Amino acid sequence: MLTLHPDTDIFTPHQHTRASHPTLGIIRQFRIMPIVLIRDLFDTVISLRDHLYREHHIMPWAYFDETVYTLSPEEQIDALIDLVIPWYFNFYTSWYYAEKQGLCRFLWMTYLDLKEDHEACVRRVLDFAGVERTDDQIVAAVQDSRGADTRRNVGTQGRGHTQLTEEQRERILRFTRYYPKVDFRPLGF
After folding, report:
1. pLDDT per residue over 134-153, tens digit each?
2. The whole model's pTM is what?
3. How far apart are CA 138 and CA 142, in angstroms?
4. What's the CA gap between 189 and 181, in Å, rounded?
């Protein structure tokens, strides 16, 4: 879960966590520089269904038992919308307000940016963290990661808009009514 940075005493955890008061306290105490990666929420649902089969039915966002595999694909998606997507709205909204209220310095990254230009995203992260690397080092690191087991998912843009039913997309959109002051456009709305 934690990787020691090769140059200094820096750890790089991959966590799925909201910007809660305890989390923000830990970020301040340990001088963590969060990078918040977001993507189209409709595509996220399809990727989560892929996750059920590629990895496991026990997820950080919701617990499913093995009966999830007996459901039809549409029922699996419905379960993800009902049980996981509320967490995603909480996740995004907590970081949205942490930024608006100046509670934490962090970097927003979008999955689309990452897919379109790996090197530019790595440069943004390094600049944010104050780590200097040459363009050649960045290109080499990206190339090296291509063969590594990085748990990349399919990452095809637009699958949620084509594979979710209209009713499923509407159910997801309804969650926005609880946060009328939040800009959800970065999530594909």
Report:
1. 999 999 989 988 765 555 55
2. 0.84
3. 6
4. 14
